[in-house]
Structure prediction request, 438 residues.
Amino acid sequence: MEIDYPLVLTGFGLRNMKKVQIKTVKGFNEVLPPESFRWRQVEDKFRNLLEGYGFAELRLALLEPTELFARSIGGETDIVEKEMYTFIDRSERSLTLRPEGTASVVRAYNQYSLGKSNEINKLYYIGPMFRYERPQKGRYRQFHQLGAEVFGEESFYQDAETLVMLAQLFHTLSIKGVELHLNSLGCEACRPLFRDQLKDYLSRHQAGLCDDCRRRGAENPLRALDCKNPQCREAVAEAPSIGDALCCDCRQHFAGLCALLADAGIAFQINPRLVRGLDYYTRTTFEFLAGDLGAQNAVAAGGRYDRLVEELGGQPTPAFGFAVGFERLMMLVGSEVAPLTLPVAALLPLSEEALRRLFPLHVELNRRAQMTTLSFQHKSLKSQLKKADKDGVRYALIVGPDELAQDEALCRNMRTKEQTKLPFAEIGEFLWERYHEH
Ligand code: HAM
Prediction:
């Protein structure tokens, strides 16, 4: 690629560059304040909820050997075929920015032998994922997930507990109207039979399929079931249903899960077309859909993957997990999240000396909690009051020469405009009490 401005390297810096405004890469979602505060509040709720259920956080590499995703997500999936940010590094290795978290968690589970210390391991993660998809509302190339994985438990009680926990997350965030769609994809015993039935059906309906589904038909016929192409949807409308092909154990697992969810009062719909865009699933798959999100309506998704740990070189270990799309979750949260706690007071110095006197007080107070703002410019009282009003503080503590001489501040209630004198020695306690009145 040609660079259209002269680059002259001098010393350690770049000089004589034409002024250019560099922007983010298309589709890379960033979170700015005040939105970042809302994100953190939601993140805290997620952490509290999961840690209450015994999950611990993993912070993993963003870059992985490409092979990890090709093996786990599957070579014939959209993610691996078209959406990964893959490049060859300076040591000629093929590396990929993680498109999802599960493969990395399993890699870590095996690499650090996490299963050895505990029979069941519950791990969660929060962070960016990267997929080269067509950006639109709710779909980005860098997006964020809140995810969790449980290892070592094959019981459907685990599936149910995790789904109840997710439903609780939506409830805690006052999100309504989220629908749980559920399916079972069977296991090694019954899925091959279903695949054969489906392959047979697809070979008889080739003409109605899109190029991708036709090409993948032999290797990965299940893909056709969740292809978004309207032509394919029509072609598979009469296709065999996985529900009819499940073996006895898979049937019992699914029925057990459905019964537990019903008992817990969690509404769900069984959707036999729900095969998901990743190949590692066995038995349960699910999506939480929200009509308010428009076209990109899955706010969370996941399922069981009892073979993946072994396929990636570990001991046979059943597993279940999910990921919530953070951006989509935030679209649903609305303004229900508690408002930010604003500083209680603005400290308004009217001279350099007053600023000097107030600075240590300001630092000391904010060590405990964000209680004050301080103007470093000692501008006119009028402009400082205007700013304090805009910042939404409840008090302004004004300090001019007279107040300095008296060792006190003029305390103005921003709502009532009432003004009283407050000795410096009492400011800390006064604000601390008001802080707790929030
Ligand atoms: P996934 O369905 O590919 O599953 O993604 C999970 C969620 O991430 C989606 O439901 C959606 O909310 C969000 N998401 C996916 N792609 C984008 C995008 N381009 N822009 C914005 N949000 C997006 C997984 O990733 C699995 N690892 C889930 C899992 C965990 N299964 C088992 N354990």
User: Anything to note?
Assistant: The CA atoms of residues 46 and 52 lie 10 Å apart.
